[in-house]
Write a sequence for this structure.
């Protein structure tokens, strides 16, 4: 790990993503941005005419498609540049202008949904059953799904105009944590050398076998967040209040129902997940008992939960080596899949390493035009980053298959499905590395790491999901969110999930105020349902025949053409049942039992 984080200008071009598959230059982007008002105007000319005839509606949809495709491409390019360096004022300005254009377009075209809803449904369904509507039928059917929650044209316009200011809490949190606070953490002493503490290196320090390093990093990290607790609490409260505003404006029963309704996911799936995990917490607590003994500590601390239990295994893996691991591990999916993914990882799909101002963590972001891009902060000393590469690669290949098998108006799959494709890849990487482990120590290391990964994705994300639910219910029931209430609620969940072996610091509950995903409400539960489905499907594909693999590819190719529960049933798993979640808990229990024997 470098002691100094490079600036964006210091990063080699080969380690940056190549955005030329979207636009060849910033000037080309500027030209595309300028076309948006005219494209919007052409769609707006159909106002009041959508229901006059099938031909008029079809022409309007084609015009809308051109406008939205251009808008998506413009925003995507600007967003990627901004995330690569949030300290770059030019990139920030570019994304801001893209968001303004998006907001203006949404406001001008807010008539579309209510006007489509006003068309006689019998007549509308007759129209979209005709062959010329093939590319738009699913889009219309999804509009009809929302019919009872669509407001008047005037009201929809007001909500559209509110879109950009509604992003303020998320944008402010991102700048505060990734730029302002990120510059102030200071350094951590590692073997007598001071190394920079950042959002990204923090996780590396917590993997360090030296407990003093972990403790210093942890305490400095949360001390800085605690200095800003009231500001961050206010930002998160603003985000939750925006969610509740939308719920009340449209007439949903709750924020949870509103978040799940669009995907036709019953709220019972969310509640069943939390209930099932609660029943399996004793296994999680047993794991922490094993961890305490393995680390040989009097008191297990919160900064002890990420360090590898096996100390002697060398985990250094170069970026290129990680790509080859992915190639070999994902071989059950076929050569077309692995060649396309690995070629992308090596040639412009991925922004590989950390730089000053770069967004922390990792993501995959694709649109209908260009390659599916991956943001990484890859560190070769952390083998988990190999899994992160495979994870984001799963998202990107899901995007690739969706784009190449669906028209624009129904290509975009849901996050509920996305976390299946990504976690599926993680499971195959684990199985590959375990099978090819050179010695028993490596097997111990991988088992312990896999336990941590399932824990983080299944149990930890469910804890996050439960916190989100409680926060929204507070506001829905008339209780304002304060730093004190948020911290108290989160601490209670920490104590419930980690059990009696864990000893927390006074500011450990600040963790609940630093999770970026909380600004996209009811997102994180999909990681837990995703790993449940992924474990089931990985087993099904690797132990099955060509049929099982084809079923999985049918799922990847579905895009947005089906609702997620239906897509997953085609792949071979029923997420309306609690069985996949319990099976995932059983898998975790089996690993814990193995660890109990070998540790």
């Amino acid at each position: 790990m470098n002691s100094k984080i490079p600036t964006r200008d210091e990063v080699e071009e080969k380690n940056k993503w190549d955005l030329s598959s979207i636009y060849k230059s910033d000037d080309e982007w500027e030209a595309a941005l300028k076309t948006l008002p005219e494209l919007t105007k052409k769609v707006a000319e159909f106002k009041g005419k959508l229901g006059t005839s099938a031909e008029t509606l079809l022409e309007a949809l084609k015009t809308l498609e051109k406008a939205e495709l251009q808008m998506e491409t413009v925003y995507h390019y600007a967003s990627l540049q901004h995330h690569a360096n949030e300290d770059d004022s030019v990139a920030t300005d570019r994304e801001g202008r893209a968001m303004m254009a998006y907001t203006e377009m949404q406001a001008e075209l807010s008539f579309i949904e209510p006007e489509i809803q006003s068309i006689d449904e019998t007549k509308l369904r007759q129209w979209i059953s005709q062959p010329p509507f093939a590319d738009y039928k699913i889009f219309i059917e999804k509009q009809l799904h929302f019919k009872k929650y669509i407001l008047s044209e005037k009201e929809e316009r007001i909500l559209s105009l509110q879109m950009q200011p509604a992003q303020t809490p998320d944008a402010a949190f991102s700048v505060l944590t990734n730029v302002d606070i990120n510059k102030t953490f200071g350094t951590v002493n590692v073997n007598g050398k001071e190394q920079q503490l950042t959002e990204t290196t923090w996780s590396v320090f917590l993997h360090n076998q030296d407990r003093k390093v972990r403790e210093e990093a942890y305490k400095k990290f949360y001390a800085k967040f605690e200095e800003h607790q009231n500001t961050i609490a206010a930002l998160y409260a603003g985000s939750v209040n925006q969610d509740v505003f939308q719920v009340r404006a449209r007439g949903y029963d709750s924020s949870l129902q509103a978040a799940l309704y669009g995907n036709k996911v019953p709220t019972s799936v969310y509640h069943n997940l939390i209930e099932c995990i609660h029943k399996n917490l004793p296994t999680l607590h047993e794991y922490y008992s094993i961890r305490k003994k393995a680390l040989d500590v009097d008191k297990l601390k919160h900064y002890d939960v990420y360090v590898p239990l096996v100390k002697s295994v060398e985990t250094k893996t170069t970026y290129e080596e990680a790509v080859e691991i992915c190639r070999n591990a994902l071989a059950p999916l076929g050569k077309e899949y692995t060649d396309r993914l690995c070629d992308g990882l090596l040639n412009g799909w991925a922004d590989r390493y950390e730089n000053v101002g770069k967004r922390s963590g990792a993501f995959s972001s694709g649109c209908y035009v260009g390659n599916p891009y991956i943001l990484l902060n890859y560190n070769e000393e952390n083998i988990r980053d190999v899994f992160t590469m495979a994870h984001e690669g799963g998202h990107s290949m899901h995007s690739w298959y969706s784009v190449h098998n669906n028209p624009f108006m129904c290509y975009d799959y849901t996050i509920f499905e996305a976390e299946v494709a990504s976690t599926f890849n993680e499971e195959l990487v684990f199985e590959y590395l375990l099978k090819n482990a050179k010695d028993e120590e490596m097997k111990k290391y991988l088992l312990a790491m896999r336990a941590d990964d399932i824990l983080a994705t299944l149990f930890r994300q469910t804890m996050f999901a439960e916190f989100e639910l409680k926060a929204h219910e507070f506001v829905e029931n008339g209780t304002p969110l304060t730093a004190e209430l948020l911290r108290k609620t989160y601490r209670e969940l920490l104590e419930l999930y980690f059990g009696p072996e864990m000893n927390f610091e006074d500011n450990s509950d600040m963790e609940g105020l630093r999770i970026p995903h909380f600004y996209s409400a009811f997102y994180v539960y999909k990681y837990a349902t995703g790993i449940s489905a992924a474990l089931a499907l990985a087993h099904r594909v690797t132990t099955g025949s060509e049929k099982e693999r084809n079923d999985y590819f049918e799922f990847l190719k579905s895009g947005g053409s089906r609702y997620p529960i239906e897509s997953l049933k085609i792949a071979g798993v029923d997420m309306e049942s609690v069985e996949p979640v319990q099976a995932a808990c059983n898998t975790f229990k089996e690993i814990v039992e193995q660890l109990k024997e070998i540790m």
In short: The chain is about 65% helix and 5% strand. The mean pLDDT is 94.
